[in-house]
Amino acid sequence: MGSNFYQVSNAWVWGEEDYLGRINLLTPARVTSASKEIQSGNIVPLNLPLDVPSVPAFDREPFEHSIKVLIPGRAYDDRYNLNTQSGTQWDGYRHIAHQPTETFYNGTKAKDIEAGPEQDRNKCSIHHWAEHGIAGRGILIDYWGYAKEKGIIYDPYEHYEITFAELQACGIAQGIDIRPAAQGGDIQIGDILFIRSGFVETYYQKPEDYRREKALRPVHLGIDAGGIQWAGIKQEEAMLDWLHDCYFAAVAGDSPSFEAWPSKEKYMLHEYILALWGMPLGEMFDLEKLAKTCQEKGRWTFFVTSAPNNCVGGVASHGNALAIL
In three state form, how does the secondary structure of the chain look? Predict the structure, then answer.
């Protein structure tokens, strides 16, 4: 249908007071059906350590941990100082607006988010996700593994566009037809999509000075502006149509931006996924053990659960996610 179809006038189908978006697709019937994916009982955490990356990108604060002494030698607490989007994260609906209209999901505006007399901490707050929960059938597209097998070489720390055609070829190699079931494919309404593009594996392979240098690049929107860059899925009409028509309940990847960054187009996928469609978007999920486990078992679907942070007025959340096979 193309990017011009997906406008504010066509968005927000769940009602004026809805702040769940496509989480609404995770009905009891779909969650019950997804539970059948639990066959061996293998539990695979999908969260990076809270201090990874050690130097976050996009000018975000690093995680800090200290011990509070309650009774010396007998009792202790933790203190955390953190940005919820410095590591494994869900981007909430307060994170990115539809840029031309400066409108967040379901008509929420900046005045509703920022401190001030018109602030409304209820609109698009992450606590709505927490009160519902996220659980359903996950599906992994291991593009990084596929690329290595096919001799496709790229650095996840640099701009690289993964096209829909490449995702489709990767799916075929895994034995998955990534078209929606309505078109004869294997994707079911309410599935939770995960794309492995190689950031986490590369992070652990690179020296600290390389990681720091790349994370501290300035944030520019233009591809030629010399700013921060990441590999991710391509901004293209075929990708927009696929992400929309599959009716995923949520999408996530292992890269810091999910989409190729920065965008070469006049739009970001974030605008459509978050602001127009109301679809949770996860970044920097740890998909390493999951990819290995799926490969060993010869299956790429699993049960997945996530408990977003219950913070009224919150923008985002840690992933707090598990896959169970």
Answer: CCCCCCCHHHCCCCCCCCCCHHHHHCCHHHHHHHHHHCCCCCEEECCCCCCCCCCCCCCCCCCEEEEEEEECCCEEEEEEECCCCCCCEEECCCCCCECCCCECHHHCCHHHHCCCCCCCCCCCCCHHHHHHCEEEEEEEEEHHHHHHHHCCCCCCCCCEEECHHHHHHHHHHHCCCCCEHHHCCCECCCCEEEEECCHHHHHHHCCHHHHHHHHCCCCCCCCCCCCCCEEEECCCHHHHHHHHHCCCCEEEECCCCCECECCCCCCCHHHHHHHHCCCCEEECCCCHHHHHHHHHHCCCEEEEEECCCCCCCCCEEECCEEEEC
